[in-house]
Write a sequence for this structure.
């Protein structure tokens, strides 16, 4: 196979504040494979060092190490190629790029969307939440009201970054009582602080609080002490976390799971414990978001997915638009972007 790797940088329209830092731009690595029959597959690697501790340089090195395997992969199955790459370097973010490219190639070869390869009856659209980026309560309320006006049924507010009580109250007032309100702390709190904060914010009416603390035992301690549903995000990358039964829901991400194949396998583990799953992104690009949309179409989660993030970039991205709070699953072959 012919193998190419390229870098692309997307700029946020507004700086994105989180508990672990403020993002102004997003660097991604794109992988393109083309087999001897001319069938192409595209993949994306979205390492985000402040979030997952993995640098773009680490991913680039892993992709370079995979190149000989990919170049000799015309006669191998996708699972064989992925297994060989995993032996060389098991970095999930790099494996995700390979996995996505293989699924995209498979869909392009078969003439079917990836969702049709994953499920006999995938959803035609995926409900997504709006992400409120503003740290000022007035701006946050304005963004939230606009999101509801555009048809979103769920909004997510980052907390642990300042005037949480003011912003959450302002957002709830702006969206009314019929819209779901989700909070994301990115592990900013300790256990006692998380309990106090959640109890203080709960009167606003919360769908769930995502990653209030880091660590399996810490999440268990918070969940045991609050009446609000608690979701696991970053902690889901820790060994044993998916079957620990410490959260009401688990947020799964294509990059952290090592691709579509890994995400579906992890979703099965989580659901076996009785917890819900939903799919989100680490501010991925169009290829990563498309892959996650196909996964969500196959999984059909009850909760909104955190995939309506392409609109946060200043770049003119016209693919996968959000309409009435949902993204249509691409119906063209492969990933569809």
């Amino acid at each position: 196979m012919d193998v190419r790797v390229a870098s692309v940088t997307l700029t946020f329209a507004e700086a994105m504040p989180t508990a672990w830092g403020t993002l102004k731009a997003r660097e991604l690595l794109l992988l393109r494979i083309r087999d001897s029959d001319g069938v192409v597959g595209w993949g994306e690697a979205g390492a985000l060092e402040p979030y997952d501790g993995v640098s773009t340089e680490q991913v680039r090195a892993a992709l370079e190490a995979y190149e000989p395997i990919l170049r000799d992969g015309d006669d191998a199955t996708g699972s064989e190629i992925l297994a060989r790459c995993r032996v060389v370097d098991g970095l999930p973010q790099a494996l995700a790029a390979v996995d996505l490219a293989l699924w995209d190639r498979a869909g392009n070869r078969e003439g079917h969307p990836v969702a049709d390869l994953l499920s006999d009856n995938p959803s035609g659209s995926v409900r997504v939440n709006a992400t409120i980026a503003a740290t000022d309560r007035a701006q946050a309320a304005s963004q939230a009201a606009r999101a509801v006006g555009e048809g979103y049924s769920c909004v997510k507010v980052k907390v642990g970054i300042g005037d949480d009580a003011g912003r959450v109250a302002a957002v709830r007032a702006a969206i009314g009582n019929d819209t779901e309100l989700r909070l994301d702390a990115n592990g900013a709190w300790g256990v006692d602080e998380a309990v106090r904060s959640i109890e203080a914010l709960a009167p606003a009416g919360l769908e769930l609080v995502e990653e209030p603390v880091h660590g399996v035992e810490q999440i268990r301690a918070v969940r045991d002490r609050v009446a609000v549903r608690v979701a696991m995000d970053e902690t889901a990358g820790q060994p044993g976390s998916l079957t620990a039964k410490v959260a009401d829901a688990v947020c799964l991400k294509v990059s952290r799971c090592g691709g579509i194949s890994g995400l579906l396998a992890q979703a099965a583990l989580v659901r076996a414990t009785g917890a819900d799953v939903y799919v989100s992104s680490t501010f991925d690009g169009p290829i990563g978001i498309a892959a996650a949309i196909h996964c969500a179409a196959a999984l059909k989660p009850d909760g909104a997915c955190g995939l309506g993030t392409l609109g946060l970039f200043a770049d003119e991205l016209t693919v996968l638009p959000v309409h009435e709070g949902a993204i249509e699953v691409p119906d063209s072959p492969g990933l569809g972007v």
